[in-house]
Amino acid sequence: MFMRAKEFSKKTHSLKVVQEMDTGALVRKAHSISTFQGQEYIVLDNGNLYDPMQKREVPLARIFRYIKCVRNSYGVIIAKKSNTNAKLMEVKFIKKSKQVS
């Protein structure tokens, strides 16, 4: 099962860090997450994550450290982490202005 993801070109968009994302905001805003191990999970309203490969629920607290990126229902990345020890930071894609030369 593949989840759709929207990709932005680095030539046209830049990534701006907004603030740190906690578990409450993650459950409210997120649709799916990706981990550093390459696993994909779907976020449920009860605070758990659903693993579509093994068809089971996993507590968010068990996976939170390993989250690499968080996507909303449109497939746009809304939070990222640089490594497992970093904080989960909320991000926004901002369109770059065209420079006239």
Q: In summary, what is this structure?
A:
The chain is mainly beta and 101 residues long. It has helices at 23-29, 60-63; strands spanning 13-20, 32-35, 40-43, 48-51, 56-59, 67-71, 77-80, 89-95. It is built from two helices and eight strands.
Largest sheet: 8 strands, antiparallel
Mean pLDDT over the full residue set: 85
Strand order of the largest sheet: 1-8-7-6-2-3-4-5
Query: What spatial form do the alpha-carbon principal axes imply?
Result: elongated
User: Radius of gyration from the CA trace?
Assistant: 15 Å
Instruction: Provide the structure class.
Output: mainly beta
Would you count the extended β strands for me?
A: 8
Report the order of strands and helices.
EHEEEEHEEE
Distance between the termini: 46 Å
Can you walk me through this structure?
With 101 residues, the chain is mostly beta strands. It has a domain at 13-82. The protein contains two helices and eight strands; from the N terminus they run E-H-E-E-E-E-H-E-E-E. The chain has helices at residues 23-29, 60-63; strands spanning 13-20, 32-35, 40-43, 48-51, 56-59, 67-71, 77-80, 89-95. Strand 4 and strand 5 (56-59) form a beta hairpin. It is elongated and about 55 Å long.
